[in-house]
Amino acid sequence: MLAAAVLTMGVAEPRPVMAIEATAPHAVPASGPIRILSYNVEGLPWPLTHGRAQAAASIAADLRALHARGEGPQVVAVQEAFGDAQKDIGRAAGYRYAAFGPSADLAAAPATTAAERAYLDAASFWHGETEAPREDSGLAIFSDYPILAVRRIAFARFACAGYDCLANKGMLAVALRIPGRATPLIVLDTHLNARSASGVADARSFAAYQRQVDALHGFVGALTATKAPLVLAGDFNVGNDPARQHYLADALIDGRDMTIAASESACGPECRTIASTPTVARAKTILAFRGAVSAEGSTIGFGTLADGSRLSDHVGVMRSFALDA
């Protein structure tokens, strides 16, 4: 029933749920803890970045190597998968199923209040706010488990700020069929508005951030109305901003709605590390959960090489989750 409900609330798009024709796909998972990785793969298009196709291939190879050792994540939620190379990570890594987030032309909710219309009226041409999105959301979920249903929501145009408006950021939820379980596991992936990288004043980017968090809060509530277990993944772009930290914690991740399981922290402009104790403070990537599910073991980082360099400007966070009996 839940999977059908999620699918009914979904929006038809050019990229539906897909069974991937992977070379040497992973073995079908047995029952047991579910390892989930959240990772921003830094797939911004050229000339903003370069060499990202090779990095995507290395990410896929590392994921495949982890699976060969029995240590790989069964589910991978990625952000900034804008290019074909990033969208192909799942197939190249051996995952059987994939779902992608809002496309560039997926319509979002229109402005209905005076405040929302006033925000749009103040949009900056020079910072990309008056343009239609040129990129899709960059969201993707790769899974060893069958994807039963998918729902995609684009953030409203009055809930984006600066250069972030050039991508149709939003939310992607999938319902996964887990062996031996009657109720699916929902995995929700998102990417919230940047602050300084958006190019606009902090007050404007924070206004967009608040509206995105509010939308996420409502989406989580709707998806878990039937008490299905849910794991939330994504790049939350809190960073060194107390206002964002407090708003996200108060609205969503404060123990009442979600319990934080793992986080990547900003330890400087280019420095990223796995938080020893999961926290919203300075967070970039976050894994959190709600419902009949619990976190197990410790957080494992992904994407840092032996010489200290990284496959992305982020560090992936991976944690195991057990579904309650």
Can you describe what's shown?
The chain is an alpha+beta fold. The chain has one domain: Deoxyribonuclease I, Chain A, CATH 3.60.10.10. Helix content is 22%, strand content 27%. It is built from seven helices and 14 strands. The strands form two sheets. Strands 1-4-5-3-2-14-13 form a seven-stranded mixed sheet. A seven-stranded mixed sheet has the order 6-7-8-9-12-10-11, with helices on one face. A hairpin with a 5-residue loop joins strand 10 (259-266) and strand 11 (272-274). The radius of gyration is 18 Å and the shape is globular. Residues 4-16 have low confidence and may be disordered.
Structure characteristics:
325 residues, alpha+beta, Deoxyribonuclease I, Chain A, seven-stranded mixed β-sheet
Task: Give the secondary structure arrangement, pairings included.
Layout: H1 2-8, E1 18-19, E2 34-40, H2 52-68, E3 75-79, H3 84-87, H4 89-93, E4 97-100, H5 114-121, E5 140-143, E6 147-154, E7 170-176, E8 185-191, H6 202-223, E9 230-235, H7 242-251, E10 259-266, E11 272-274, E12 283-290, E13 293-302, E14 316-323
